[in-house]
Write a structure and sequence with these properties.
Blueprint: H1 2-13, H2 19-38, H3 40-78, H4 89-92, E1 97-99, H5 129-133, E2 138-140, H6 141-145, E3 150-154, H7 161-173, E4 186-191, H8 199-203, H9 206-215, H10 219-222, H11 225-234, E5 238-243, H12 250-266, E6 271-276, H13 282-286, E7 289-293, H14 299-316, H15 331-338, H16 347-359, H17 367-378, H18 381-397, H19 413-418, E8 422-425, E9 429-432, H20 435-448, H21 461-470, H22 477-485, H23 493-501, H24 512-524, H25 530-543, H26 546-556, H27 561-574, H28 580-589, H29 593-606, H30 609-621, H31 624-634, H32 641-648, H33 654-664, H34 670-682, H35 686-700, H36 717-725, H37 734-746, H38 749-762, H39 768-775, H40 780-795
Parallel strand pairs: 3-6, 3-7, 4-5, 5-6
Antiparallel strand pairs: 1-2, 8-9
Length: 807
């Protein structure tokens, strides 16, 4: 047998076959296999070690690249503000806040947000001149994001929306622990003008994000950014910060909205914060973003800014100036001179005014004077002509983006980019770095050349702003008169907008009187929704017209309590010193608490010695409700009000101390909460200790929440309970809308208001008739809720065909 096998192998391999070597090879193979098997654990350990070393090296390289991205992002944000030539943003930033949203009506919730003196000045989404004066309730960006909502920060140009995004980018890039789990998210901060929204972007929406994000960072960080952003978006560990939507016109916002909806649909777990316009944001909201207005600066905010600017100026600028010139300026004197002189100014206007005061090129006290000084610093006369022509071409193009086609041949674009007037974006697209600057330059061009009323596009904030600036130099009658003759709308959008132009216009302009008359007519009518009347008081207070004071005094003496409230708020808004005695008399003689609260706020806003002394007496001697109102009003006055509250907390009178606790709770300073913590532990009266505990709890856990919208109104618990009470169920879609209709017609007071709010964010077209009927309701609260619902629908671009007669 063996011989046979040997012969077969010789036949296969020839005469070179050696039997001994063959079997030795077999034995050697068996031995090697045994050795390999025995060494398998060691081999696996070596392989794992090498793999781990390789992955660690890759992770270290990726982390280094992504840390480089965060550093670049912080550097970009620190220089993305008006005064970047002097300071980093962190050196002068006043922490951006959002106006506390109204609590949604919930018939099931008996624990409503407690009302205080500020309840008579509810935060509005569009007009907020008085909100800053009366230190309206606000929430931080961290608190606004803490409940999972995506945000659309709304506001007018110059209100600080872009700065809020830059601030948020810095905080998240630095992994600020106050933002909770968001501290571990990757911030992606881009401008809408850097988004290339072609067909491929609709199919693969993240492509546009990556391309835009790569533009703002170094080549080293950009080289690996694509994969890192995709990975973080897929994991739902990214937050998109989208700036510049408010610069776009309606058609451009619609295109952007389609893309954003596609992005959120593909990556549903990412977070989004965008800066948008006050109105006209329908598609953006459909992507799941909750509109919330940015808060205006209060008097205290302005003082914080003045203090920070002074400190930064002394540290970086004063020491570099020639002796005997600007270095001799006393910052304390400047701060005292500027404090209280910028009532109602936006953050941009405050910055320009302070800047011109420090460098000594102040041209006046009007907001346009600060803009003029800024432009004169950075543009030569020839450059200015080109800049004005470019700005006018921009407004007339009715597009948020400037392109080579928009600009005249030979326009020195790069010079304007170097001067910081323009910002260059992807594919040779440009925007004005500060849209207010662009609108002002366009206004000057219209004033120096032929004015064309067709330049105005109502609904585009920047076009409306251009008209406001033009009002400082020219006659707007050709624009205003035709608009006044048009059929009115129940929201009075256009009339309110024209009213805001009065602030800039010379007093002798013929169109002012008619606009003021129509605004006053609305404010006087007690049958108009309170929200509309309050809006007119915001606008009237901002005009600076002398006749407004007479009108507010007449309102203050009206029989209707709501008219008296509005009159008092307006008097405080314009700081009418002659009405102090009347305000004190009304507090002492009228029994309506809202009227007395408004009068207390007005006294604090007027701020004269007589007014503050009157508030002091009220805090010491009046009834409990007025004592609390006086204390909360004092918190609006950082000059004397803060110190009066500190003194009041030491008084023997139990009710005075308790009222002072509520006032201190509204003082935005650390020392006030230290006092409250001591009172909570040490005061000998449990009523005072309990008030301090209540205020501190409200500070730690603000009652205002911004929650993600429900996907369908059928998920609303109050609607389900109402349907159950009716013996019915609630199905999604049309059936849920029918149940809302039923609740509006048959529900109780809270359910009717909740139904109107549901109509506002579902679209409302199917329930237009019910909404119109609610606007005519006898119950004021229902009229008011219907008006706000209509405003929300209009802001989203829904036209219900409701018109009011002109005049």
């Amino acid at each position: 047998m063996i011989q046979t096998v040997r012969n077969l192998l010789i036949r296969l391999f020839g005469n070179f076959f050696d039997t001994g070597e063959f079997f030795a090879g077999i034995v050697l193979g068996i031995v090697l296999f045994w050795v390999y098997h025995r060494l398998e654990p060691a081999r696996l350990a070596v392989s794992t070690w090498l793999s781990d070393r390789t992955e660690t090296s890759i992770r270290r390289r990726d982390r280094s690249s992504f840390d480089r991205y965060r550093v670049d992002l912080i550097a970009k944000a620190q220089s993305s503000h008006l005064a970047r030539v002097f300071f980093a943003l962190d050196e002068i930033i006043v922490e951006p806040k959002l106006l506390a949203p109204p609590s949604p009506a919930d018939p099931q919730d008996s624990d409503h947000v407690p009302e205080d003196t500020l309840s008579i000045v509810p935060n509005l989404p569009d007009w907020n001149f008085l909100s800053g004066i009366y230190s309206a309730p606000t929430i931080s960006l961290a608190a606004a994001l803490s409940n999972g909502a995506n945000l659309l920060i709304t506001g007018r140009p110059g209100s600080g929306k872009s700065t809020a995004l830059a601030y948020l980018a810095i905080r998240l890039a630095m992994r600020d622990p106050s933002y909770g789990t968001l501290a571990d998210y990757t911030p992606v901060w881009i401008h809408a003008a850097d988004l290339v929204l072609d067909r491929s972007a609709q199919k693969d929406p993240i492509k546009a994000v990556i391309e835009a994000a790569e533009k703002g960072v170094s080549a080293n960080a950009a080289s690996r950014l694509s994969g890192q952003i995709q990975a973080h978006f897929k994991r739902g560990r990214a937050i998109l910060l989208l700036d510049g939507i408010d610069e776009f016109v309606e058609g451009e916002i619609e295109e952007l909205s389609n893309w954003l909806n596609a992005l959120v649909k593909q990556y549903p777990d990412i977070r989004v914060v965008a800066a948008g316009p006050v109105t006209g944001y329908d598609g953006i909201v459909q992507a799941g973003l909750s509109p919330v207005p940015i808060a205006p600066w209060s008097e205290q905010d302005q003082r914080v800014f003045l203090r920070k600017w002074s400190d930064a100026w002394q540290e970086h600028i004063a020491r570099t100036l020639p002796k005997g010139r600007l270095d001799d300026l006393d910052p304390t004197m400047l701060t005292g001179w500027l404090s209280g002189s910028m009532r109602g100014y936006t953050p941009l206007e405050v910055t320009l005014h302070v800047w011109s005061s420090y460098v000594g090129d102040t041209r006046g006290n009007r907001p346009v004077d600060g803009l003029e000084a800024y432009i004169a610093r950075f543009l030569s006369p020839n450059e200015r002509k080109s800049a004005q022509a470019s700005a006018l071409a921009w407004l007339r193009s009715k597009s948020g983006i400037l392109t080579d086609r928009t600009l005249k041949r030979g326009t020195p674009i790069q010079d304007m980019v170097d001067a910081g007037i323009l910002t260059e974006h992807i594919h040779n697209r440009y925007t004005f770095t500060q849209p207010n600057i662009g609108a002002y330059l366009a206004a000057r061009a219209m004033a120096e050349d032929e004015f064309d009323p067709q330049t105005l596009q109502i609904g585009w904030q920047l076009s409306e702003l251009g008209m406001a600036y033009y009002a400082a130099f020219g006659d707007l009658s050709a624009v205003v008169n035709p608009l006044l003759d048009q059929p009115g709308d129940p929201l009075s959008h256009t009339l309110l907008t024209m009213g805001s132009w009065i602030r800039q216009a010379p007093k002798k302009m013929p169109w002012r009187a008619e606009v003021l008359r129509r605004l006053a007519k609305i404010a006087t009518d007690p049958n108009s929704p309170y929200g509309l009347r309050l809006r007119t008081v915001h606008v009237l207070s901002s005009t600076g017209d002398a006749t407004v004071a007479i009108f507010f005094r007449r309102l203050l003496n009206a029989d209707n309590p709501s008219s008296r409230v509005l009159g008092a708020l307006g008097i405080g808004g314009i700081r009418d010193e002659e009405t102090v005695g009347l305000l004190i008399s009304i507090i002492n003689t009228k029994r309506n608490l809202h009227t007395r609260q408004a009068a207390c706020l007005a006294l604090a806003a007027v701020g004269t010695d007589e007014a503050m002394e009157g508030l002091g007496h009220l805090l010491l001697e009046s009834d409990e409700g007025v004592q609390i109102a006086a204390a909360e009003a004092l918190a609006c006055n950082p000059d004397e009000g803060f110190m009066m509250l500190r003194d009041a907390i030491e008084m023997k009178n139990l009710l005075t101390r308790r009222a002072a606790v509520f006032g201190l709770g509204r003082v935005p300073e650390d020392w006030s909460f230290e006092i409250l913590e001591n009172i909570q532990l040490e005061d000998d009266q449990w009523v005072v200790r309990g008030a301090a505990a209540e205020v501190l709890e409200r500070h730690r856990n603000p009652p205002w929440k911004i929650k993600p919208p429900v996907k369908d109104i059928s998920e609303l618990e109050w609607l389900q309970d109402f349907a159950a009470r009716e013996g019915l169920g609630v199905a999604p879609g049309k059936a849920a809308l029918e149940m809302v209709r039923r609740a509006l017609n048959k529900g109780n007071e809270n359910e009717q208001v909740a139904a109107l709010e549901a109509i506002a964010w579902t679209g409302g077209e199917d329930l237009a008739l019910e909404l119109i009927q609610s606007l005519k309701a006898k119950e004021p609260h229902l009229r008011d809720a219907a008006f706000e619902a209509l405003w929300q629908l209009d802001a989203r671009g829904v036209d219900l065909g409701i018109h009011a007669p002109a005049g």
